[in-house]
UniProtKB/TrEMBL annotation:
Belongs to the short-chain dehydrogenases/reductases (SDR) family. Gene3D superfamilies: NAD(P)-binding Rossmann-like Domain (3.40.50.720). Residues 1-20 are annotated as: Disordered. The keyword NADP applies. One of its GO terms (molecular function) is oxidoreductase activity, acting on the CH-OH group of donors, NAD or NADP as acceptor. This is NAD(P)-binding protein. Keywords: NADP, Oxidoreductase. It comes from Penicillium olsonii. Signal peptide: none annotated. Pfam families: adh_short_C2. InterPro entries: NAD(P)-bd_dom_sf (IPR036291), Sc_DH/Rdtase_CS (IPR020904), SDR_fam (IPR002347).
Length: 291
């Protein structure tokens, strides 16, 4: 790691005075699975709130949405390739980020995948694929980030993307492995927060409900959509990906300097009951950035 270049972003100094403004000014943030979807929406919010640089760590390719945000924030949004199921690649990605940017202040552990079917029908391979990304990959990512924070002497922030499915099963189409993996994320949040408090590292999570992405654009077009909204209550629409960003920005900011070991549900109420029900109908198996 090289930290001496004059053009690199300096580490944020430790402050003893509580910060009252929610801002990411000068911070370097990494987000797994941010080439598209929820992760990219969080990246956009981070940049809109002053982040110096945001890096997407993803196994896939970037697309038009990523390029559009990159043009809005020239020289601030970057993509690094890594596979979260292989800890060595995550470590290498973080090393590259620190070499380029000079620091790392926040890690959003967002990469995930989902697959919905009856518990009795899941194959061993399907279960392992879910756990490898959602749980093991999340642990590897958080640990690699924590090691970097400790080495740099930075009181960093880790924010996991959990899910409303971690609180209760999907009534329409349950997915035992998916819900269990996301419940594991919330437990991991609490345990790591306890372990890493000695280093000044904060660990929290966000639980999205039903979010409008390229994979759920058709949801409001369902013939019974209005009836379902009346049944479940809450906001009568899906969330925009950017609407999740405020929770992440707060948890990454110095305004949350005493906030650790919590989960923030962002569900508009409706997501609490069927956050993923419609996804099965259309897509079946989804990949990174689905939360």
């Amino acid at each position: 790691m090289t930290l001496s270049d004059t053009d690199q972003t300096p580490a944020i100094p430790s402050n003893t005075t509580p910060q009252t403004q929610v801002s990411l000014g000068g911070k370097v943030i990494a987000i797994t699975g941010a080439n598209r979807g929820i992760g990219l929406g969080v990246a956009e919010c981070c940049l809109s709130n002053g982040a110096a640089r945001v890096y997407s760590i993803d196994i896939g390719e970037t697309g038009e949405d990523f390029d559009g945000i990159s043009k809005r924030f020239p020289g601030q949004l970057f993509a690094v390739t890594a596979n979260v199921t292989e800890e060595s690649t995550i470590t290498a990605a973080i090393d590259k980020i620190i070499e380029e940017a000079g620091a790392l202040h926040g890690m959003v552990v967002n990469a995930g995948r989902t697959h919905h079917k009856a518990a009795l029908d899941f194959t061993k391979e399907e279960i392992e694929n879910l756990f490898n990304v959602n749980l093991f990959g999340a642990f590897y990512t958080a640990r690699a980030a924590a090691r970097a924070f400790i080495k740099l002497g930075i009181k960093g922030s880790v924010v996991f993307t959990a899910s409303m499915a971690s609180y209760r099963p999907n009534k329409r189409v349950p997915s035992t492995p998916y819900g269990a993996s996301k419940a594991g994320i919330r437990n991991m949040t609490h345990t790591l927060a306890m372990e890493w408090a000695q280093y000044g590292i904060r660990v929290n999570s966000v639980s999205p409900g039903l979010v409008k992405t390229a994979m759920t654009y058709w949801v409001p077009q369902q013939p019974d959509w209005e009836q379902q909204l009346k049944y479940y209550g809450g906001f009568p629409r899906l969330a925009e990906v950017q609407e999740l960003g405020g929770a992440y920005v707060y948890l990454l900011s110095e305004a949350a300097s005493y906030t650790t070991s919590i989960d923030i549900p962002v569900n508009g109420v409706i997501g609490s009951e069927f956050a993923h029900a419609f996804v099965l109908r259309k897509m079946g198996l989804l990949t990174y950035t689905v939360c």
